[in-house]
Amino acid sequence: MSTLAVDAIVDSSNGNTTTINGATPTAYNTMGKNRIINGAMEIDQRNAGASTAVSSTTQYMLDRWRAIEITDGGFSVERSTTAPAGYTNSMKFTITSADTSLAAGQLSGFDQFIEGYNAADLGFGTANAKTVTLSFWVRSSLTGTFSGALRNSATNRTYIFTYAISAADTWEYKTITVTGDTSGTWLTDNGIGIDVIWSFGTGTDWQGTAGSWSASGAFSTSGSVSLIGANGATFYITGVQLELGSVATEFERRPYGTELALCQRYYEKSYRPSSVPGSSGVPPGFITTLTNGVVTNSIAGVYYKVVKRAIPTVTVYNAVNGTSGQVYRESDASGITVSVQYDAETGFARLSLGTSKEDQYLWHFTASAEL
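Above: the chain sequence. Below: its structure as tokens.
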């Protein structure tokens, strides 16, 4: 049984608990309780801490986190060292181009898809649906009421939540308790089990009423702060946890290697942690020798460090200049186009070269099996 001890301010307008630059909640830790992966924003395989621009698209940022920006504006996102006590990293968003008048179908924010296997015990969609609690640390240059939601994979069941940011540029701790949904279809396999989403502003098509389950895909309220509407506005988040029960307990601290392995189920790279995929001049991931090209015209593939959620999309990179779809041939410094063959969740068997030249080939890869 977990216990909670925290200096807190209860906001009676929305039922959320807020701690402003106060003590981190303390409780007994339970291994595996947090359904969010990389909630402390430590893992960033794709960008290695570099700022990334997001505009008119959805794309993955820090591991397991997806940016949503379908407006006439745009924002940047990066791993930041600005963090509350007890944390070393956060995810920082900066509005780089504001959209002050969102069309009905436009939307912006970020989310994390929780795999169905990791949410199956919550019983959503059944009479035994269980209560869950979402908690996180947040800091923004804007104050007011913000919103987000829990949704199913079909985006036809949603629970909109709100939380208030009371002081600008100040870390605040938020908790939201949600009674489990007894209706709808909630996947319990390797598909999207629960989508946890935060809004930066939406058009009317994506707006609804907070505080109860509804048959829609909305994830914000009409009165929520529109971060995307304020050029230069910033938003930081870390310590994100979704857990079983009606009380927010201490953030689950998993070893770095464990957290990395959890991320690698969905995305893996052969590059060193500090190198962005596609970088040039980095140490080669693989040096493979072709000795019998006349027969197969191929070189051996790899086994992944972690078995993937599904058969991934593999991208091969020239290890010298970073060109995708190529390996580097050492004898003549050529970039040779390749294709992946016999791929599976555990790895791929070989790369087809389309050449019979016996030589050494240098290459890297990424494998993405995101939800």
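The mean pLDDT is 92.
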